[in-house]
Amino acid sequence: MRLPTSPTLCAIIIGKLIFATKYLGLTLSLLLCLHLSCLAADEAITEPADEQTSASEALTLGDCIKCHPSIVSTIRGKGMAHRDKVTCLDCHVGHPPRTTEIIPKCSRCHQGLAHFGLNNCLECHTNPHTPLEITLSRSVTAACTTCHNGQLEQLQEHPSVHTTLDCTACHTKHGYRPPCFNCHKPHIEGMAAATCQDCHKPHMPLEVNFSPDTPSEYCGSCHYNVYSLLASSRAKHRNVGCAKCHATRHKTIPICQKCHPEPHSKSIIDQFGSCGKCHGIAHDLKLNKIDMRLENQPQ
């Protein structure tokens, strides 16, 4: 088969070849431009950090509130040292998409104390923007005592039921001091919860210390037999408060001479050995005729 050789056909074929060549050249030019653009982008992304303009330098504190108004409001109200000592850009260095690791570790700033060496800070300090709003579980002790070691020493040196409890069994919130009546009954009806700590310190509750004006009714709720015996006595001791004799410290047993100077000669003291041999016990004194006569005299 012979191909046509007319001038017209040859012109058409040549024209198509020229068009195809121009189209191919344009396509190749576009592909080359796209390739060069990608190379330039890759170079920008992989450019060394010291040659980049960091996101923190580009941002200002005024920018943070534009996207994070609630966080800025929270930290202004409850940020404490995270509000007063640092700014957003001090903690969050950089910004996505250029910088992705923008959540700092607590240890970047918090160092040098035993408490800062604990793991999993966010277990209790759940929101770094409100660092002193602390969430506690029911069985936390070790973490508390890294700061409150004085209370731990009291519990260990003066064992009681309180020693066996976790700190958060009582302190369900950080800084919360529960009223004693959450677990303990008052000594008498109408007793104010605040008065418990006049005698009992929470971390060593069995080391009881009190003032001389402590009501005897408080003592009588535990020492009922002694209190009743004294209340029914005819001797003047019934008018003396428990804390006047058993001064300042629980289980103090005073000597009679604290109030009564030596009323007898040394020979009598030596003969009988103790005041109680004649006068009985202090809560139920034996009265003789002289005592009864003195008792009935006007005060």
Q: Structural class given helices, strands, pairing?
A: mainly alpha
Total count of strands: 2
The mean pLDDT is 83
Tell me roughly what share of residues is in helical segments.
40-55%
> Tell me, what's the shape?
rod-shaped
> What separation lies between the terminal Cα atoms?
156 Å
Q: Give the radius of gyration.
A: 44 Å
Number of contiguous helices: 16
Q: Tell me what portion of residues adopts beta-strand conformation.
A: under 5%
Largest sheet: 2 strands, antiparallel
Spatial sequence of strands, sheet with the most strands: 1-2
Catalogue the unreliable spans. 40-53
Helix and strand sequence: HHHHHHHHHHHHHHHEEH
What report would you give on this structure?
This protein has 299 residues and is mainly alpha-helical. Among the domains are: 55-118, no CATH class; 216-295, no CATH class. Helices cover 41% and strands 1% of the residues. It has helices at 7-45, 55-58, 61-67, 69-78, 81-84, 88-91, 142-145, 149-157, 167-170, 196-199, 216-220, 224-231, 242-245, 266-272, 276-279, 289-295, and strands at 280-281, 284-285. Strands 1-2 form a two-stranded antiparallel sheet. A hairpin with a 2-residue loop joins strand 1 (280-281) and strand 2. Helix 3 (61-67) packs across helix 4. The protein is rod-shaped and about 160 Å long. The model is unreliable at 40-53 (pLDDT under 50).
